[in-house]
Design a protein that fits this description.
single chain; 272 residues; alpha/beta; Rossmann fold; 2 domains; six-stranded parallel sheet; five-stranded parallel sheet; 35% helix; 18% strand
Amino acid sequence: MTEQKMLKTPSGDIPCHLLDMDGVLVRGMTPIVGSAEYVQLLVDSSVPFMVFSNNSRFTPEVMADRLNSLGFAVDSSKVYTSALTTAEFINLQKPNATCFPIGEEGLKQALNDQDLQYDDVSPDYVVVGEAIDYSFQELTKGAQLVASGARFVGTNPDTSIPSESGAIPACGAACALIEATTGVAPYFIGKPNPFMMRAALAKLGKGPSHTIMVGDRIDTDIIAGMELGLQTVLVLTGASTESSLGKYPYRPDLVVPSLYHLSVHMGFNEDC
């Protein structure tokens, strides 16, 4: 483990938090021990935070309801997903663009909210998100549309996500199939792309020096936070392990066994 140290803003306050969801707060539909209690500490201490997830399957409302049912004090305004940032990105690039989405309701609703229209004949974009059960027919259609000239976007590069039964294929794995078929590489919008993190910071109204990124993946959460100048915390309840730190030329500011163990580094015992 890293040394015992405090993570504070330049003014000495507890920093606002970007909290990854899968592997930090929950594993599938199971809350990670102590994670709901840590979120409650943030609420009780009026520390701004956002659940910041590459998972594009669900709308913020569904994710908030799911977290509430598991004991987390989170509403939909505190949830920011790769589906939201992908839709915002496409709308900035080409307002009123047409899209062929491959994914679930979270992605489709986000695109709809940005007035991006469905098109399965000649879309501007093929957009791949997370799905628990990818349709081979849709992936085939997506590959054919990309081969015909549609721009190719993925919500996030994760090749797997943790679940109660073990890792399951994620957006990066689905995009790899289309890339192998077409030779066209996707542009990923979610972590570690700094576009998503800058958008989340804008919603929080905070700068990098006043924010920490807490995640379970060195290659997405930690690198994204580090490259934007956030302090970073790796929890060992998800994808990355302490032994895997040696594979990377960078490392987090802090490594903790679980989210709740972060409380001593925030000074909550003094502030609450």
